[in-house]
Amino acid sequence: MEMIIGFTIIVAILVIGDTVSTATKAIIPSVFVQALLFMLGFWTILPKDIVTTAGFSNLSLLAMYLLITHMGTMLDLKQLIEQWKTVVIACAGLVGIIVGCMTLGSAVFGRDIAFIATPPLTGGTVATLLMGDAAKAKGLENLIVLPILVYVGQGFVGYPLTSFMLKREDRRLLKLYREGKLKRISQEEGGGELEGKFRIFPRIPEKYESDSFMLLRLGFVGMLAYFTSEALNKGLAAMGASFTVHKLVVCLIFGVIASEIGFVEKKTLNKANSFGFLMTALLGYIFADLNRSTPEMVAGLLVPLIGILFFGIVGMYIISFFVGKALHESPEMAWSIAMNALYGFPQNFMLTHESAKSVTDDPDEREFLIERTLPKMLVGGFITVTIASVIIAGIFIGML
């Protein structure tokens, strides 16, 4: 297959998902439709390597660096510090998943299934690969595909549930905004577009501020974040630490700092006319792992898969609800934060924008909603998928 053919097919699937979501006002989330189409396609006519053939694999890694750094430019230091409540709620959700799976899940489906399925349910790809290898090492041949199924299946549950909760939260926030009880964050800071409060770099004259120059500065920040994370993790390893700091977490923090001091502008990818293409590249890649599923695989483990998902999500809902209530967070937002464990970035980004788009046609109101919900969703995704799930997988492997 030629690259351009693969590219066109993948983008067509993404467009179908977006169209269905728009037509149903996000009742059916785009990522749900896209994941379903990719899975059915891999089972029938799509080549297993279409994502690689279309050139999305390498481009997606670059897109991740730039997009996460860009996300940092959309926050400020005050917002980032205020996200400690989000961290607590996200961790509470993970505790709920573990309690639900290791009590009811273990009692109904057995200890091995519960141990192997729980870490992938708390996070993403790394936890999935670790538990698959652990099942293989323990000789549990019939359960090797279970982590992959959990990884694939949790999105089909998480996408519509999160979409439903976010829309409820957006309607609540929008009502307060229209009543004048809440304002845009930029308006709270004195009006106008948000910009760095600690600017030490002068503004670039408009005639020199090209798209390429904006991308250069953003790329430089991402590169600094990469080198910093490498040095930091080497230092942690030398001290005998059992954890690492993910490079994308450092990218987010560096993006915040760089925009605060004026080295890069707020929402820099939008201004560089590059955001849409990079987001498309990343979305085209995240469904690549669906090529590992088969109808037989799904049918053979369907009952324990549904059961583990049910027990884990119920546990997550209960604990995150009470913790969110204690921290004065709405149940809808607390549940949305916790459900980041079921997908992470970039799906949380897409679901957040999709929800805002579905409840209002006013651009200013959409920006208000995104300002209020996106930082929480991004931090929730990093805590669950990027950081905690890997730690949980390491602990569970030792106990298996």
From TrEMBL:
Keywords, in A-Z order: Membrane, Transmembrane, Transmembrane helix
Superkingdom of origin organism: Bacteria
Residues passing through the membrane, by range: 27-46, 87-106, 144-166, 213-229, 235-257, 269-288, 300-323, 378-399
Keyword Transmembrane helix tagged: yes
InterPro entries reported in the protein's UniProt record: HDC-like (IPR049576)
Protein name: Na+/glutamate symporter
